[in-house]
Write a structure and sequence with these properties.
2 copies of one chain form a homodimer. Chain A contains 15 helices and 16 strands. Chain A is α/β, with parallel strands linked by helices.
Chain lengths: ~450, ~450
């Protein structure tokens, strides 16, 4: 028997397809073969499939759970998880803690251990694809492959030396080698990540863009996030951050614009015109008191919006389930309108919207025949999950990451019965705790 | 052996005491006998206790978890949980769905089943005391006693007939009998709940106040929540809602003011002067786009603030853990200051602050010798709970209700290993699902 030819079938589920019709199928079944979805429908195809494939079907009873497309975390710095909960609420945290800690501690090992822990957390929380920007991205790729996570990995480019480069802009060189190494991988999409407008020269930004264009890979950047970034752009060019990047000619559909908080009407026009995808990081932006990305206006213009957690030192958690209610509530509040952003639109941003932002919507983001099998099963037996009158609302306003029961990435079951099965969580946890002890000793002197 | 004399001892825990010094005790132990805490300290008393009490000690290994005071939900309508996720995001939800549904469906049975489910959810989420306002409060009391939950239960008073009264203001009469029945109970504190200024006459409000005063029990009300409430008060009396209630002479330390969003400087002065406790329901207020209670100013004045979820049709979840990060983030954002409301202050509102609001801070809200054993153990083995540099931050920004491992109310273990043990959760769940089918048939015609 060729195990690769086995069919896996979910039954006894409600399917939130997020296909173009936004079909919701009660008592449905979803089947996949290798890494591809081959059937999505009502229960009645079950017998046909079973008779066709015989004993080579693995059946997963969803126990009346909700099967949704795997969620997409469009912006994070996964490897920062070893620093989580350190100096929250502190005024000069970035300069007082974060930069010195990174300077002293970030190496290949920390990056690998952090990425592995963060990926485990994302998988357990129903995330099946993430977009990362950090150092030593090759280590993140290794961790991602080991745990069978789909990822878009972008090496940081900066105008000063970084943990993995003794010289400024070392990330450019790193990126070329990194992209060459991973460009044909089935799980890893390599990209490039110039940190921000205020930490890069015009030349470096253009060079990064040329690399992205040459290889046709994503380019991601923190854009219009900081007050001082905007003032600097205004002062130097009399432009907003978005207008400055546009003038440089580096905005296109490969561009993933994280944060994008401090934007005006003209910026929104540019983002739409250049088909830039934007990433809303509401949890981190609110905790850091950075402001609110105008997603209502952006949606009106038809801009693609995905959700991100930002790094776990900024946003603490790495799942997307807990981002959705924050997005809904904060925008309802700011716009004084309870009907804005109904749950279905939040689920869109968490799935197919995120896939569009990352340029992967042909492959992932919805449950449709021919797409990759990236699936998240939300159980409905826990106390917080009943009753359900609206499946979207139940996920957005009732669920939390602990309700994620089973997760499939690229046709492989990676989480089952709420346990990580693509890696040894005990070992992963042990590594992070050892690292914490080491970090503690450094942090105490800061 | 007299089982009542047994000592229960938590070990291998970090204790967040929330005592006046806000002591945090690593590797601590907490012991309680009957319903009272008898020891709080470092590990070293363990042997003394064991030799003193011999085999009559039940030892609970906290597995390096965090033991905190049981959390307090200061405002909810527990029995509304059967309607959760119905018509979220809908414009006229209150009038189009909620009132007709309540009119047609709320009876003793629904109130009891709803309360039982909601209480199970609160206990599983680490809440050990809640303050309720609804109809048939005697049914809520029954459910609360059965599951061993501590509660402050306030029958609604309204100027129109309600599910449990054919005439207006029937809640006044109901309350007297209800208070008489429960006034000496060890778990139930009966009170009275005039619904809002705009649904009560001056006379009814004064009468409710007299009842509260006569029996020295809590009186709770929705205050300054609605735009139209404020306009009505302005138009009729040229006063804000708070000023109107103050003029009636009904504000005192028994008064629990829920929502309290639309208030000015003078209102805040009055609330402080009259020692009124206020309840912040950020989740429900943001989802309903109702505005943000000015807690930063209120805290500066020294007003007691507790947290509430509001009813589960408004706020969906019933735990307090998920309220804390919402409070922190939204106020940081609105005040443009990331240092505001550090985690310790959010935990205060969730515990001892809430106890003060309910007038129960002599009994609950902190882990101290002589106080009632109302305890919540947060496990730290799950992926979202590591690393921990700051116990407060880890609870506020990392935890979710699924991390609640063990819960003790009034010296009785009600949740253990994340399972409800004071009731049969399967049965409770079955009842709510049956009820949902019935509600569906009514809702479809609205």
């Amino acid at each position: 028997m060729n195990l690769k030819e086995k069919i896996v079938l979910f039954k006894n589920i409600t399917i939130i397809t997020m296909n173009e019709n936004r079909d919701v199928i009660e008592d449905g079944i979803v089947a996949f073969k290798n890494n591809e979805i081959i059937h999505v429908g009502k229960r009645d195809i079950e017998q046909t499939l079973i008779s066709e494939y015989g004993c080579e079907i693995e059946i997963i009873d969803g126990e009346e759970g909700i099967l949704m497309p795997g969620m997409i975390n469009c912006h994070t710095h996964a490897s920062m998880v070893p620093f989580r909960s350190l100096a929250d609420d502190c005024k000069d945290r970035l300069k007082r803690y974060l930069f010195p800690l990174e300077q002293k501690l970030v190496d290949e090992k920390l990056t690998y251990i952090g990425a592995k822990y963060a990926i485990a957390e994302m998988l357990l929380g129903g995330v099946t694809t993430f977009c990362d920007m950090y150092y030593f991205e090759d280590e993140v790729a290794k961790a991602s492959k080991e745990l069978n996570m789909r990822s878009v990995l972008c090496e940081t480019v900066l105008n000063f030396p970084s943990p993995d480069s003794k010289k400024a802009y070392g990330g450019l060189e790193y990126s070329i080698a990194f992209i060459e190494k991973w460009k044909n991988d089935d799980l890893i999409t390599p990209g490039i990540g110039p940190h921000a407008p205020y930490t890069n020269s015009d030349e470096a930004l253009k060079e990064a863009y040329e690399i992205s264009k040459k290889y046709n890979v994503p380019i991601t950047m923190h854009v219009a996030e900081m007050d001082y970034e905007l003032s600097e752009c205004k002062e130097k060019y009399n432009l907003t951050a978005v207008q400055y990047l546009d003038k440089l000619g580096i905005l296109d559909s490969n561009f993933i614009s994280a944060h994008t908080v401090l934007v005006d009407e003209k910026d929104i026009e540019i983002l739409k015109e250049k088909n830039v995808g934007v990433v809303h990081n509401i949890g981190a932006n609110s905790k850091g008191a950075k402001g609110v990305m105008p997603i209502v206006k952006m949606r009106e213009k038809g801009i693609n919006i995905g959700l991100g957690t930002d790094g776990p030192m900024s946003g603490n958690t790495l799942d997307i389930i807990t981002q959705m209610p924050q997005v809904g509530k904060i925008h309802k509040l700011f716009n004084n309108d309870r009907t804005l952003l109904p749950s279905i639109e939040l689920i869109e941003m968490a799935t197919i919207g995120g896939a569009k932002v990352l340029g992967m919507d042909k492959e992932v983001g919805s449950i449709e025949v021919g797409k990759k099998a990236d699936l998240t099963l939300i159980e409905t037996y826990s106390v917080n999950m009943q009753p359900i009158y609206d499946y979207y609302a139940a996920i957005v306003y009732s669920a939390n990451p602990s309700n994620v029961d089973t997760v499939v990435v690229n046709g492989k079951i990676v989480v089952k019965n709420k346990k990580l099965i693509s890696g040894d969580f005990r070992e992963i946890r042990k590594s992070i705790i050892n690292l914490k002890d080491k970090i503690d000793k450094v942090a105490i002197n800061l």
